Amino acid sequence: MFDSIKKDFTTRTLVLIPVAIAINIAVGTLVIYLKLPVYLDSIGTVLVGAVAGPWAGALTGALANLIWGLFTPNVAPFFYVAAVIGLMAGFFGRRGVFQMESPRWLSVVIGILFFFTLAYFLTAFLNRQTDATGYTTYPTPGELLSRYSIVFLLAIIAGALVGWFFLRNGGYAGLAGLATGVVAAIISAPMAAYVFGGVTGAGTDLLVAAFRASGAGILSSVMAQGAVSDPFDKMTSYMIVWLILRALPARFRTF
Amino acid sequence: MNDFSLYVARDSGLHKLHPLTKGIYVLFVLVAGFTLPGPWTSYFVVAFGILPLAAWGKVLGIHLRSVWRVTWPFALSVLLIQGLFWGHGEDLVSLGPLALKKEGVAFAFISIGRILLVMSSFILFSLTTRPDMLMISLKQAGFPGSIAYIFVTTLQIIPRFQSRAQTVLDAQRSRGLETEGNLLVRSRALVPLVVPLVLGSLVDVEERAIAIEARAFNSNHKETSVVEIPDSLLQKRIRAVLTAGAALLVVAGFAWRLLS
Q1: pLDDT (tens digit, 9 = 90+) per residue, B71-86?
Q2: Is residue B224 part of a domain?
Q3: What interface predicted TM-score (ipTM) does this complex get?
Q4: pLDDT tens-place string over residues A6-28
Q5: CA distance A113 to chain B (A)
Q6: B169 and B42: one domain?
Q7: A27 in Cβ contact with A40 (< 8 Å)
Q8: Does A75 touch chain B if contact means CB atoms closer than 8 Å?
Q9: Which residues pair with B98 in a beta bridge?
Q10: Which domain holds residue B34?
Q11: What is the distance in angstroms between the Cα of B120 and the nearest Cα belonging to chain A?
């Protein structure tokens, strides 16, 4: 295990890491300029994980947030989330996720599955019932599907479009990004709830407000908000890294 | 050197302290604010543990302004979300269908204190500590040199990177890329902006790696530094006490929560 950690850190990797951190910050700022509803502040982290391995990815993530935290302190407490994102990108990278091409129909299936799950999660979450003893029940799948059939139909169409036009041949990278996003949402929620009272000061707070209004607790509202925004965000980051790696000459793809 | 940092040069005792002393103090203050019970704790810690130091470091005005600038969006958001959507509880103020709940406002009050504590302690540290000094001191304390390299280099290349991002943005717009308009138009602009930015900087990596390897980056010899960082026995003792105190608070905090 120690050897595998050491192997990740060649001179080229160490030079790449500051560039990656600058990418995180520069793209994060660009996204704010374009006013897009994502963060995209982990592209550099995912990139290092993909080309230089999980440990280099984890170090990049942690240092990125700590250094950024010197100017915007609110990102610093989330350094451990960034480290896990880099770690996961590294393990996915070792499995070749960023090199593989998926058939386009598979990307469509992945897109549909994601949007369908998201729609199901949202409708089930917003329609749950809590009785006097605090026991929570969720509506049955059949009930939800018939009540919100139009929502689910729209989700399937949106998922198919995203899969066909956005994921294209990068279905595997997109899927890995979705998985990373779910993990990031779960592990970042306790910190967001405990230290920041569940808010980020950004547009995603509207989602937290909606979930709170539906009667959910602070922690579960933050987790649900993360489960909606983070997979989108990490899927986009992974797709951009996939595109970058395809545009790079082969000798740059492994460090 | 065009560094990207909040550092403000002043001639003060706080600026002259060893960076590790300040770092450990920030850690101690954060631990104290989060482990000690009571809704007012974080406010007390900020008022008596941070602000007097900012005044000592002659940065009180700029510190207050910076903290305010980064804190108010959080404060407003947490107050509105937790105050309006608490669900049950007593109405404090009501306006039509909306009502601020007493319990929600109380929770928001605690949260704002915590946010204030995180922001003000980090900003005080950044305002009074030169990043390169921090890194030299960490290196001397036994941290690997590669971490110091990453840290210092990042701070130096961020401004260059931001100007490169602006160049790519201008270049693509002059070729007709639309960066304003509806969400779809703006999303489409993302890839043509991000990919050239990243590709260009990756090509630089190769060159830089060769350059630093030619200057003995991988040498195992202990380096000497031109810059001496003044330290004292008193500061060493203070650091030891603060570290022990923080550890004690963590243990006591856990024990207290387990028992109650």
Answers
A1: 998 999 999 888 888 8
A2: no
A3: 0.84
A4: 777 888 899 999 999 998 988 88
A5: 22
A6: no
A7: yes
A8: no
A9: B95
A10: 1-142+229-260
A11: 8
